[in-house]
Amino acid sequence: MFYEIRRYQTRPGRRxxxxxxxxxxxxxxxxxxxxxxxxxxxxEEDPDGYVWIRRFAxxxxxxxxxxxxxxxxxWQHEMRPVVEQLLLMDRTVVTRVRPTPASxxx
Length: 106
Known about the structure:
With 106 residues, the protein is of the alpha+beta class. It is built from 3 helices and 4 strands; from the N terminus they run E-H-E-E-H-H-E. It has a 4-stranded antiparallel sheet. Strand 2 and strand 3 form a beta hairpin. It starts with a strand and ends in a 9-residue tail after the last strand. The model has no long low-confidence stretch (mean pLDDT 97). It comes from Streptomyces aureoversilis. Pfam families: NIPSNAP (PF07978). This is NIPSNAP family protein.
């Protein structure tokens, strides 16, 4: 099992719109396809920063869920254009982490 910590930079002044889109559209869509969304955060020190965490049982599961989400017609034609309007895509940072035995997330 591992987690994916995804750090996004919204376009200036668009973070509130991004959070609404994530909570009302993107997270429910991904969860409906089996994605395990662990947490979602706004950055207290960066007015345009946003972080979310997803959990995967295995690399195989991650590949399957990525395909289900990102290859879907809905993502390609409806959601991706909105995401690109709200985020600075080239500023995305994805970190994969594994919990240590004492972390409580194992």
